[in-house]
Amino acid sequence: MPKYNLQLEIHLFFIRNIFRIAVCGSLGLLSIPLKGQMDASFKYEEVVTPLVKQYCVKCHGAKKAKGDINLEDLLKSELIADHFKSWELLMNMVELADMPPDDEENQPTESERENLVTSVKELLEYTIRENAGDPGEIVLRRLTSAEYAYTIQDLTGLDLDLEKTFVGEAVGGEGFSNVGSVQFMQDAILERYLAAAKTVAAHAIIGAGPLKFYQDPGKSGQELYAINRINQIYQQNGFRSGAGEGAEAYGIENYPKAFYAAWRYLHQNTLNLGVVSLVDLAKEESISPKFLNHIWKVLNAPSPSFPTDQIVSIWKELPKPNLEARPSMEFTVREACSGIYDKMLNWQKTLAASTIDDEEYAILTETSFYPQGAHPFSVQLNKSGTDTIEFEIYVRGVSGSDDLKPAIIWMNPRIELHNEGEYIGGHPLNQYADQDTIDRLNFGKGLGGEDIRRKYFATSGSTKLSIKIPNPENANSVTFEVTPTLDVNNGDDCMVRIEISDGLRARTENVASTGFASALLTNPDSPHLDQWTTGVREFALNLPQVSHREAAPSDRDWIPEPFDSAYNKPERNYYHTAVKYHRDDRFLTETILNDTTKLKLDHAWTDLLTSFDFHNTIFRFVNNKYQLQSPVSTVEEIDPIWMNQLSGKEHERVSHLYTNYNHHLAKLEAAETGHLEEALQFAEKAWRRPLANTDRNRLGNFYNTLRTEKALSHENAVRSLLARILVSPEFLYRIETPSVNEGIMMLSNYELASRLSYFLWSSRPDEELLRAARDGELSVPENLAQQARRMLTDRKARRFATEFFGQWFGFYRFDDFTGIDTIHFSEFTDKLKASLYDESVSFFEYIVAEDRPVDEILFADYTFLDQKLADHYGIPFTVDDNSVGKTKLIQGTRQYNRGGLLRQGAILATTSAPLRTSAVKRGDWILRRILNTPTPSPPADAGSLPSGEIVPDGKSVRERLVAHRKDPSCMNCHTKIDPLGFALENFNPIGKWRDAYLDGGAIETTGVLNDGTEISTMDDLFAYLRQEKNTFYRNICEKLLGYALGRSENLSDRLLIDKMMQILDNDPRFSTLVTEIVTSKQFRYKRSQGVESAKYPKAENTDSKI
């Protein structure tokens, strides 16, 4: 069978579908001129055209187009509104008598000037009135790289950094990348989209549970995602009072809460609780109802065994309710319940004190109770630096009665000495201890006065012995060795706990200390041993110390058979590196988890154990350990006939593996149908609309073909299906289906949801927005406004701050900015760039989310700083627990020459040259970005300024600019630009404040605009901008509308923009602009095919008359 080429298949699929959509969509792109009124046509032909030809085309024609304005082309346009901004600029200059210039001999009369201006204005106003609200052309818009990345993030929950996968994007319309007319789809771009789709699909988790996505791809992602889910379920629902090496206890409040809830249930009538159930009380205590039910049964079981009876008796002795002292009573009972838990924990630790391997952390379970007749101790003692070493021995009977007096014979107690790892000698304790210790221990005598070996000693009852020995100078390691055993002839027959501690290193909760050892001793011939063992194991089963074992055992944890659990042995080490995981959570699953969570846990374990060669690894180990001579190497290949010929442990091990493997395989197969349906649900979310039956059939057939004809596995077929969904036009394009009916029609609810979400979030609609679309709510303008207000306060509105304001003001992706010489400005590091970028984005996020007045963009007395940026700016920064490494709002920054857009470091850096500031760039930026007053490109012979701040001829940059402005061809622009930029000269190229240039010269900030306005300081600059506030307001209205619609401003938008301006005068909050746009006809409607262009035409083509 030839290799299946998914890439070619998806490529052909894309071409077929985009052609279908483009043909349908193009019907709505046809522009058919409107037939104008005869008086307006007359004015255009008989007034405008002749006057423009007579007085303007000499300098602004095809042969000579000063300022890049060619009025001959303007006159040729069939639609006057095609270039309405050029007409407005032209008429403004004619009205102010700036054009024709004073030195031009051919000047219009005042009457001609007035007639020209009035005629053009009337033509434009007529078009505005007749076409107000026209939504403009339907433009097939592709997701920008940022929109693609955000959408994938919202679909999968992952930030895969896909934005930088794609090539740089052009901007259009009002200066943004979301304009369809500047977006193209070439083969190379489609290849990148396909690669990105495959990357996303590789992160899909296709296991036993629902289809999910994880940060790591492939099988490693499946393993990590599974272990994270398992650990999360364990920690959220389970408990452990002790843990393996490096771990922490958690869930320890569950037992006290359960004891308290059980007490309330017992006394529910006295407490006036009414009709109440264990389930109700469990919910009040935030514990599992199943767990509380279990505890209730344990506490009320008849004739509980030891040591469970110790816990039950204490619980039954809790005080009865006293309603007159209810608050203090409840506190007292809760405290007592915590005491019961402490007692229970003490029993658990006491009875788990003896383990097979001293290195293993002791946790009491029903299979880990190992009492011994004798136990050898070896305890490394602490050389404290004093003349003596002191250690302690504890003995305590633990069979449930304080009256028991166990007798212990301590055999062969010795002190062993080592130096630098070498053995240098040893001494019996009776020859090495101090005289007081020797006298107290009475070496060589038993408790009945009988002789025992002279090196031995005996003790009676629960006791604490303190032993002192000299601190040897010639040894750096001192070890105490002894083997205690029960002496039932001179003491009671009981279980005994023995602990030996160096007195300085207490036993930790997480790992056995080298200065501590413990053991549990009993008489192996005791008639009570079976009863004790049964009782302890019931205790461990019903009131366990841990609800589960950790999925990945630590170095000190027990590991399962057939592996040798001894610490630091080859089999154990192999287990930790190759097998890694073991499931032991019966108490949790049977006694705590509800059915839903248990199913999730089962799915996670299946995903974990099928994410790597788990079963085969164990099978190979068993095969080698038991020399099975298996004819196959994988569990999948095992022949049941061969397996059933095995006997004993060999059959048990292999049969368990075989059954477990097929169990998990069946779980995976059972999930396949669900995965296909979830992939279709994923398509609905990705395509931002419900799937039609044809869509479902098309995608389902694609999957079936991959399985049957291409022989792909279920996992690979689903990944291919996901890739196909993400490379389809329905995902890559924001499709608004054109109607075959003529007229202007409202967008569908799902199209409105998509428009709104990509406007404010640069991503797909969330579930709330889709619900509103499904319920038909978005066709009501107020509902759209309500959704917009909600979305502006969402964390995802930060994307709007990045995409809209970043592209508008030029700090977009500033963290990648490389326009500063980092050798000269070494502090301009990636970390500083990130802080500067975060300042700008956080500032605009605050403007949006907090619904601030839009004039604060320029005049705010606050900014956002982290510690690094505050140090860079020289602003005091108070660090608290909530601000370490974070950006926070800083008020009152005007006193530090900060606050607002113009004083942000990202803006100041992007408007600088690599080695110096640039008054020209900064002034031009203010004109273009703030005041929407573009200046023409400099002439080819304009010359250039020096790259650095200090130049050999001694002339400053400002002096060179002054000389440059003497050229008449340069003066007109530079008198508009330079004074605005010089007002910011106190900020160096990376945004730091300075009071002098590098050569010590004073900062020059004074300039005079072409209208005579003098600007000497930043305060003057801000005063000037306040005078131009309406210009800025109009600019933000035009930019915001253009960004929302993905196109340039149309003349038909003028009434809407005028209305937005009026709103700003009364309520300058940002949300008022957004809600006005989203409820406008431009936003909510689209043109259908055959609708004429919303632009005023000339009555006839005038080419022959020019």
What general form does the structure show?
elongated
Determine the N-to-C terminus distance.
69 Å
Query: In DSSP terms, counting alpha (H) and pi (I) runs of 4 or more, how many helices?
Result: 42
Number of strands: 19
Average pLDDT score:
87
Summarize the helices and strands and which ones pair or pack.
Layout: H1 6-26, H2 38-55, H3 71-76, H4 84-95, H5 110-131, E1 141-142, H6 145-156, H7 187-202, E2 204-205, E3 212-213, H8 218-237, H9 254-266, H10 278-285, H11 289-299, H12 308-316, H13 326-351, E4 377-381, E5 388-397, E6 407-419, E7 422-428, H14 429-432, H15 435-441, E8 457-460, E9 463-470, E10 477-486, E11 496-501, E12 516-521, H16 529-542, H17 570-579, H18 586-591, H19 595-609, H20 614-625, H21 640-644, H22 648-670, H23 672-687, H24 693-708, H25 714-727, H26 729-732, E13 733-734, E14 744-746, H27 749-760, H28 767-774, H29 781-792, H30 797-809, H31 830-849, H32 856-859, E15 862-865, H33 867-873, E16 888-891, H34 905-910, H35 919-930, H36 957-965, H37 968-982, E17 1007-1008, E18 1014-1015, H38 1018-1027, H39 1029-1045, H40 1054-1066, H41 1070-1078, H42 1081-1084, E19 1085-1087
Antiparallel strand pairs: 1-13, 2-3, 4-10, 5-9, 5-11, 6-7, 6-8, 6-10, 11-12, 14-19, 15-16, 17-18
Helix pairs in contact: 1-25, 2-5, 4-5, 7-25, 8-19, 9-10, 9-11, 9-13, 10-11, 12-13, 19-22, 20-22, 23-25, 24-25, 27-28, 27-29, 29-41, 30-31, 35-37, 39-40, 39-41, 40-41
Q: What does it look like?
A:
- By secondary structure, the chain is α+β, with helices and mostly antiparallel strands.
- Among the domains are: 254-340, no CATH class; 377-382 and 389-396 and 404-471 and 478-523, no CATH class; 822-910, no CATH class; 920-1027, no CATH class.
- The chain contains 42 helices and 19 strands.
- The strands form seven sheets. Strands 4, 6, 7, 8 and 10 form a five-stranded antiparallel sheet that branches. It has a four-stranded antiparallel sheet with strand order 9-5-11-12, with no helix packed on it.
- α2 (38-55) crosses α5 and α19 packs across α22 (648-670).
